[in-house]
Write a structure and sequence with these properties.
Blueprint lengths: L2 E4 L5 E4 L4 E4 L14 E6 L4 E6 L4 E5 L4 E3 L13 E5 L2 E5 L5 E6 L4 E6 L11 E7 L2 E6 L2 E6 L2 E7 L16
Antiparallel strand pairs: 1-2, 2-3, 4-5, 5-6, 6-7, 8-9, 9-10, 10-11, 12-13, 13-14, 14-15
C-alpha cells in the first residue's frame, strides 16, 4: 500500500516507501482536487479515498484508476459539505451550508440523493451532526431533528418544539 498525506498548502501527497508524489488542484478540468489545503483523508471499503479540504469541499479519489471521480453520479460533486460519514453501504456528505447528500456505489458507478431546503426535504441546510442508530440515520439541523429510514427523510422535531432559543449541536444514542 501507500501512505497518503494531506498537506496544509501543497495538496495530497502519496508516499510509496521511497518517493513522494504530490497531487495538486487542476481547476476547471472536472472532478479533481478542489483545494490544496487538506483537512481529512478517509478510505472506504470500495477503494476510494474521501478527501475533505479546508474550504469544506469533498473530493473522491479512486485508488484503482488513480483518478478523481464524480461521487454524486450527476455532476453535483462541487458542493460544500465538510464531513463524510459511512453508514452501512452508503456514504453521507454533510455540512453547515448545503444540507447533505446520501451516496451509493454499486461497484461500478455512483448515484446520490440530495437533502436540502432547495429540494424541500430538510428544514435547514445547516447540518450539525449525522449519526447511525440501527437502520436509522439521524440528522440535526439548526431548524430541527430529522430521521432517514426506509428511503425516506422525515422531520421528527422542529425548532419550535425545542426549549426556547436552543439549537441542536450534538446528540448521542445509547
Amino acid at each position: 500500500g501507500f501512505i497518503w498525506i494531506g498537506t496544509i498548502n501543497s495538496g495530497l501527497c502519496k508516499y510509496d516507501g521511497s518517493r513522494f508524489t504530490l497531487i495538486y488542484p487542476d481547476y476547471g478540468v472536472g472532478p479533481g482536487l478542489s483545494d490544496p489545503r487538506i483537512s481529512t483523508i478517509t478510505g472506504d471499503k470500495y477503494d476510494h479515498l474521501w478527501i475533505t479540504t479546508m474550504s469544506d469541499q469533498i473530493n473522491c479519489y479512486d485508488l484503482r484508476t488513480e483518478s478523481f471521480v464524480d461521487y454524486s453520479g450527476n455532476g453535483h460533486y462541487e458542493g460544500h459539505y465538510g464531513h463524510v460519514t459511512f453508514v452501512g453501504d452508503d456514504i453521507w456528505v454533510w455540512g453547515k451550508s448545503q444540507g447533505c447528500m446520501r451516496i451509493s456505489y454499486d461497484g461500478e458507478s455512483f448515484s446520490s440523493e440530495r437533502y436540502s431546503t432547495q429540494t424541500d426535504n430538510l428544514p435547514s441546510d445547516n447540518v450539525s451532526f449525522l449519526l447511525q442508530d440501527g437502520d436509522c440515520v439521524w440528522l440535526g439541523t439548526s431548524e430541527g431533528l430529522c430521521r432517514y429510514q426506509n428511503g425516506k427523510m422525515d422531520v421528527v422535531v422542529s425548532k419550535g418544539h425545542f426549549p426556547v432559543g436552543e439549537k441542536l449541536s450534538d446528540v448521542s444514542v445509547f
